[in-house]
Amino acid sequence: MKKITVPQGTEGLIFDLDGTLVDSMARHYDAWLQLGEKYGFTFPEEWLFELAGTPNKRIAEILNERLGIDLDPARIDKEEVEIYHRMQKEMNVIEPVVEVVKEYHEKLPMTVGTGSIRLSAEHTLEGANLDGYFSGMVTASEVTCPKPAPETFLKCAELMDVPASKCLVFEDSELGIQAAKDAGMQFVDVRKYYN
User: What's the average model confidence in pLDDT over 158-178?
Assistant: First the structure.
């Protein structure tokens, strides 16, 4: 397993959650499959990775556009979170990324910047036993423009009181990497470190 190195001069670390800190994408996909069964739509697996980091309400809007259906985004968001929570008892962590968290805990400020809503993100961190490591979190509940807009990560930098150029973002999605670039931050594509 390759080790992730943090460049010298980095003053703050920002971590995406789903697919970066925890291996939760399969559970999210199961939740979407259950919703598809209930509401009569098909959710191809490749869409999950294409839309990684996108809030549930926006995914529902995209499904409406692509499939010509009429899902209620607020209801879908609520139901996806409920299904996901039932499957959240134990989260598998992504070891090379969590090693960085543990190595830099109390050495550098660290935040989580996620497209999940706050309640879901809190449950995920608890399920992975990672809830005590971060000084703050910015979720879809606190931003106007989610990833790929840079707002999530810029708010994380503000929480840590670290200039954007001194932040290092850990991400697993193209949307998140674009957000990091547009925020003027360095980034690590954690997909290179998966087993």
Answer: 96
Active site members = 16
Other beta carbons within 10 angstroms of residue 27's beta carbon come to 20
Whether the predicted pLDDT of 195 surpasses 60: no
Domain residue ranges in the chain:
12-23+91-193, 25-86
Strand order in the sheet with 136-138: 136-138, 110-113, 12-15, 167-171, 186-189
Question: Which tokens in the block code for residue 171?
Answer: 């991400």
Mean of pLDDT values over 125-129: 88
Query: Which is higher by pLDDT, 128 or 75?
Result: 75
- Does pLDDT of 90 surpass 70? no
What CA–CA distance (Å, rounded) separates 21 from 2?
16
pTM: 0.81
CATH homologous superfamily, domain 12-23+91-193: HAD superfamily/HAD-like (3.40.50.1000)
φ and ψ at residue 15, rounded to 5 degrees: -120, 125
Helix (H) or strand (E) holding 59: helix 56-67
Q: Which residues of 110-132 are buried (b: 16+ CB within 10 A; e: fewer)?
A: bbbbbbbbeebbebbbebbebee
